[in-house]
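Worked example 2:
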Amino acid sequence: MKIHIVLLTFFLLPIYLLGNASVQDSLLTQLAKADDSTQLVILEELAMLPDVSADQRLSYLIEVVDLAQNVNHPVLKAEALYQLGHIYRNQGDLDNALAVAEESLNLFKENDKLQESAKPITLIGVVYIYLENFDMALNHFERALEIRNELGDEIQIVKAMINLGNLLGLTGKLDEAMEYYKKALKIKEDVNDLNGISQLYNNIANIYFAKGEMEEVLAYRLKALEMDREMDDKWQIALKTYNLAEYYLTINEPKNAYPYIIESKAIAENLENSGLVNDNIQFLSLYHELLNDNKNALEYQKLYAKSIKETFSKQLSDQIGEMEVKYKTEKKEKESEAIKNQLGKVHRQKLVLVFISIIGILITIIIFILFYRKKKDGKALEKKVLVRTNELSIKNTELKRNSLELVKAKDKAEESDRLKSAFLSNMSHEIRTPMNGILGFTDLLLDSDFEDADKEKFIGIIHNNSSRLLNTIDNIIEASKIETTQLSTFISKLCVNELVEEIYNKFDSDQSQIKFSFNNELSKDESNIFSDKSKIDSILTHLIKNAFKFTKEGDIDFGYKKKNNFLEFYIKDSGVGIPSGRQKAIFDLFVKSDIEDHEAFQGSGLGLSIAKSYVELLGGKMWVISKIDIGSIFYFTIPYKTNDSEVIDLEPSSKLVESKCESNSLKILIVEDDIDSDNYLTTILGDVCDHIWHASNGIEAVDICRQHKNIDLILMDIKMPIMDGIAAVKKIREFNKNVYIIAQTAHALIGDMEKSIEAGCNDYISKPIKKEELLAKIMK
């Protein structure tokens, strides 16, 4: 009788606890007492709980994988690896996502789980899209569709077809994408899935839009909207009416677009979706512009700019996260039925295992009661408990260590985000400040109350601010190339002495309060080396600018000397100096904005980082020695190479005869897609030519050159529609080797000149173009 009471008590106690404690706490309590097989089931259930964090779910799944391996349960291991792959992909860890997905696939194959294998195959395809390996993505999506077709699961077949359609549309294979969308549509229509039908109508309309078949676009857009109205899906109605407005504006029918703009905007405002509201405001501006109502078009454009400014920072920080959450939610809802069925099956299995475990525990208790007097068995049991306790202690220590590492990683990420935010704030200042001077003094130039002397002063201020703004933009572009590792070198022969003297002459202008000097150690012949001249020029320029910025009075000296197989350059100043704790950080991107100088200095703070990256790219190193209020010495080295087999000849050859220029008889072709730039060039070249042709793209330029073989000079814009300048130069050189071509571009990056010369140009000039510089190049 007593034994029956004990059995009943131990049987009912776990059920009581499960009913009164939280699910997660209860499972964790059971986990600490369970054996490996039972732990596997408990950990899997913990990983599936909806309220656990991503890090907790990741930790539980990793433990499931390890335990499944220990108890030889490959199918559960494969399923856990598949779930891990999704977490890694969401975290951006694509290498780990790919690795665990492929391991999951192999385990499903080895255990003849055809249906389950389609899941990791699809995940692998998605990861390859993120890696921009579209061929591999296509192969995996096609294999997933084959498996779905073999199993006859229509819901999964539709998903596989839509995946293929999206990928093919992304890669420009529009007809193939259309074929998959229409097959999926037929299945959705058979089961009368209105939401699925609406989305596929919209996808098909997008394909027709990309193909330019506008009548078909309208038909499918209207069908999609009709479905959404039938379901009363406000958000989808707002999107579909926005798409219809876009369609009518594209075909220049603004009056038909207007009611759709108003409806989409009203729904978006009610749903508090600022992004869609702003897009519709921009559409209203375009609507009035197409009606030649420029006043209202301007008003809506101003309203759009104001709205964008107010919502930009929030959208920038939230947009990616919101889209990911929406995508996951939609996916979970569509697969909810299948997941519920799977969970029900797993839950039943877990109940069986729980009851088996309870019975096992009861049997162990009975055996313990019968043999409790045997000290040997008692000691053995005590030893097992001690070993298990030690194991749990070790795991707890590992968890604490991992927690500390996560905290450090979080702090580092927050610091990086803070520095970048400070950098963006500084960039805003560095762009808006000169723009304020440019726009402000431009308005004053239009005021007739000022004298000519004042207006000349205003023009000088505008010019200086324009140069400052251009320098900031150049530095931002170069910093972007450094972060994306797009830098390359262009090696040519150069004279270091001549380069140093050129830079000295560039800076030795009106710095009367500062003594500026240079020193060349080697002779002119000894200073001839092979390196990247433009990058060395940029390095020295950034460092000398930095010296002048922080030196109000005293000395600035620069030069170089030979040390072994390197040239060691130095730039010495008597400026404010750099604190010892910041001497390494000043070379990092985004750091300047984080330093609170005791005085406000202009500049983006990118110069030192760019200079250091160039030095390291050339095979040297850079460092600084500095003391507060005494000054700084910046050092850098470059290899001393006196011969090189891989040399790019950057010397432009002169083809024009100077007498032509003097007699104002040049025949010039201006190739420029921007009308204002074309007018500017036409104005400044009026005195040196007797005829000018105009082309707005590369194809027109090639045709004009074929028709007029007597053209002396071509001013070729590099960035143009239809055919760019590089391609046009190569075409022209096929039949005309003698015409002189000067490349012009607004993309004034290091390397642009070299690419232009390699394509066949004789010379290069960057925008904004100065009249004196252009005429000097023509006179060559």
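Residues 66 and 77 are 8 Å apart (CA to CA). The radius of gyration is 36 Å.
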